[in-house]
Design goal:
The protein is α/β, with parallel strands linked by helices. Helix content is about 35%, strand content about 15%. It has a seven-stranded mixed sheet, with helices on both faces. A three-stranded antiparallel sheet has the order 6-8-7. It is globular, with a radius of gyration of 18 Å.
């Protein structure tokens, strides 16, 4: 990246298919989304990567852990994919913070042949923004006091069923959370979060400042937004009806929370296929 940090890019699936570039939400890892993206592996050329200071990537300084840096990273990763695997059209499939950060730069977002955004934290000024900002500050404080260390991965997996955040996920996700968001502790014993609580909290605390800057109508490619069910209690930040955006194809997934790809992976994969077919972006 521009500051010398490294992001590890991995390739899965069918190299002859349409290329999908996939990343994840705050504090998580793209390998956690395995129940979702493996449903696309037979048909599509899948490029997956973790945001900086997440997943497979090493930990860098907190001062560089912010949404503008994430946005710049997306552009560098885009260029690296072409260099590593050859140029061909790419469709971005991003969730939450990775979705927000990629559209912070309309020029970067517009390099994609299409964008499928899962529950991006985007809102406008006014009452909804006030609700968003209040929720963001609560979630930031909660994230900052998360347990950063566990004696084993199994210890974390055993605690997750008691968390409302992951109450609706498909079987196997508890173990995946532990395997993909923990690494061996730098202090020797046990396991620590790949993305430390202070890093996760910093992103949430400033999300509202950037959520109101997004202009999806400025993105020069087809955009689909699939949100959480607005009638479900939110588990991350409030979900907004984005139908006010002229260019964007917005829908929501009934009975799904912010973690819809971990709860209804088949429905999410089907929605991606439908979007690709609608815009003639399917496997080739």
């Amino acid at each position: 990246m521009d500051d010398g940090a490294s992001i590890l890019v991995r390739r899965h699936g069918n190299p002859n298919g349409t290329r999908l570039v996939i990343s994840h939400g705050n504090g998580l890892a793209i390998d956690l989304y395995y129940p979702f993206w493996t449903l696309l592996a037979d048909e599509f050329d899948l490029i997956t990567y973790d945001l900086r200071n997440h997943g497979w990537n090493s930990l860098g300084p907190l001062r560089n852990h912010n949404l503008p840096t994430f946005a710049a990273d997306h552009a560098r990763v885009f260029e690296a994919i072409d260099r590593l695997y050859g140029k061909k059209p790419k469709v971005g499939v991003f969730h939450s913070i990775s979705a927000l950060s990629v559209v912070l730069s309309p020029d970067t977002a517009s390099q994609y042949a299409g964008l499928f955004l899962f529950d991006p934290p985007i809102c406008t000024r006014g009452k909804t923004y006030e609700e968003f900002e209040a929720a963001a500050q609560r979630m930031s404080r909660f994230a900052e006091v998360r347990t950063p260390w566990f004696r084993s991965r199994a210890e974390m997996a055993e605690l997750l069923p008691y968390s409302s955040t992951f109450r609706c996920v498909v079987p196997g996700v508890y173990d995946l959370v532990a395997k993909t968001t923990l690494r061996k502790s730098s202090k020797g014993a046990g396991y620590e979060l790949c993305c430390p609580p202070s890093y996760e909290a910093q992103i949430i605390a400033y999300a509202g400042n950037f959520a109101v800057l997004i202009d999806l109508d400025a993105v020069r490619c087809p955009v689909k937004v699939l949100g959480a069910d607005p009638l479900c209690p939110f588990s991350y930040l409030p979900t907004f009806d984005l139908t006010y955006l002229v260019k964007v194809d917005y829908d929501f997934l009934p009975d799904a929370t912010h973690f819809l790809q971990l709860e209804q992976p088949k429905a999410c994969a089907a929605a991606v296929r439908e979007f690709l077919a609608l815009h003639n972006l399917g496997s080739s």
